[in-house]
Design brief:
Layout (H helix, E strand, L loop, with lengths): L1 H38 L1 E2 L4 E2 L13 H16 L5 H12 L3 E2 L7 E2 L1 E3 L2 E3 L2 H18 L2 H16 L3 E3 L3 E6 L2 E4 L1 H18 L2 H13 L9 H18 L2 H23 L8 H18 L2 H15 L4 H7 L16 E2 L2 E2 L5 H17 L1
Antiparallel strand pairs: 1-2, 3-4, 5-6, 7-8, 8-9, 10-11
Helix pairs in contact: 1-12, 1-13, 2-3, 2-4, 2-13, 4-5, 4-6, 5-6, 6-7, 6-8, 7-8, 8-9, 8-10, 10-11, 10-13
Length: 361
């Protein structure tokens, strides 16, 4: 009887903790989604616009689209979004761009000097998000899109194999770039995880090894994305070399990320540069059940929300740059957008983080 009481008490604590977790994060998630719907949703195109001061703009942002899809996959997983809603957004956001192979391949983001412009970093991150969407829904449209874009980037020469190895930033910067190479590793790792095709494992290994060579830029976020890739490949393969690499990259990511919070370090103190650290740390927590990873993840998320209320978030969203106290910097600009104007990637990043925290926090 005593044993049964202990079991019932343990179950009660787990359920109670899950409810408290949901009660904390759900209002923040809802507030962020409310901001996006009110200030960034263009119902005519079925897309979120690039910036909050242009709510009727016809286009969107290829990077922002990716983060929204990744967030929505978590929302489908925790039951706050229906799979068909995510599918509708996938269709409308993908239709904004021509593709390298007609109805498939990498997205062509525009033209420069008469040549198609493809973003290696944008499409590799898109691929990894699409595999996540497939993992949650088992809808092969997402997996087919990810595989065809990844192949198109290879076919179009985005993999560089000189003294500096890795995935190049875009069509016109023909040098390996830290964020592209890290997301190349994560895309390959996720494709290996769902297909068990050793070709993707080889691409994951090559991408991870490439990060040991000079890159255009590499920041703590990129180390965390790569650590996530190494961990994903380890879980799928049980190859200890990937576990060793994951821990090396994780240590670099956390050390650099914590320094970024409170000091002037290379990189941007914003949700996307800080948020991917939390995303990866939650994956380490899910795999290892080591609470220190969850605690670190929450440190990075709470940097942006400790002083915010849901109503404040619903009214103002999130910004592009923050000081060491977690307050927005409203002077200057980021990627050509004034820092007074919320940018879809930064707002969507917080939506994603709240959805992850609701699931695992």
């Amino acid at each position: 009887m005593k044993k049964n009481v202990i079991i019932v008490f343990a179950v009660f604590c787990i359920v109670g903790g899950a409810r408290a977790q949901k009660a904390h994060w759900e209002p923040l998630l809802n507030a962020t989604q409310s901001y996006m719907q009110q200030h960034m949703w263009n119902a005519q195109t079925g897309n979120y616009v690039l910036r909050a001061d242009e709510p009727t703009a016809p286009g969107s942002d290829s990077w922002g689209i990716t983060i929204v899809l990744d967030a929505q996959a978590y929302m489908v997983a925790n039951g706050t979004m229906k799979p068909e809603e995510m599918k509708n957004y996938f269709i409308s956001s993908t239709s904004l761009y021509e593709r390298t192979n007609g109805n498939s391949g990498a997205r062509i983001l525009g033209e420069r000097d008469g040549q198609p412009y493809i973003g290696g970093d944008d499409d590799l991150q898109w691929c990894s998000a699409l595999v996540h969407c497939f993992e949650i829904t088992k809808d092969s449209d997402y997996l087919d899109a990810a595989k065809s874009s990844f192949k198109a980037l290879i076919d179009n020469g985005f993999w560089m194999d000189g003294v500096s190895k890795g995935w190049m930033w875009n069509s016109f910067v023909r040098k390996p770039d830290g964020v592209s190479t890290a997301y190349g590793a994560l895309t390959a790792a996720r494709l290996y995880e769902v297909t068990h095709n050793d070709v993707y494992k080889q691409w994951a290994a090559a991408s991870l090894n490439a990060l040991k060579t000079p890159q255009v830029g590499i920041f703590p976020r990129d180390f965390m994305v790569a650590a996530d890739a190494a961990l994903t490949t380890y879980v799928a393969s049980h190859d200890e070399s990937f576990h060793k690499r994951a821990m090396e990259l994780l240590d670099s990511a956390v050390t650099g990320g914590l320094a970024m919070l409170h000091h002037q370090e290379p990189g941007h103190r914003n949700p996307t540069d800080i948020g991917d650290l939390a995303d990866g740390l939650f994956h380490f927590y899910r795999v290892t059940h080591n609470v220190k990873y969850k605690t670190l993840a929450l440190t990075f998320i709470n940097f942006f929300v400790d002083h915010r209320t849901p109503s404040d978030i619903a009214a103002k969203g999130f910004y592009n740059e923050y000081d060491t106290k977690g307050q927005p910097i409203l002077t200057g600009s980021y990627l050509g957008i004034p820092n007074t104007v919320p940018y879809i990637s930064e707002v969507a990043e917080m939506l994603k983080l709240f959805a992850i925290a609701e699931l695992y926090g």
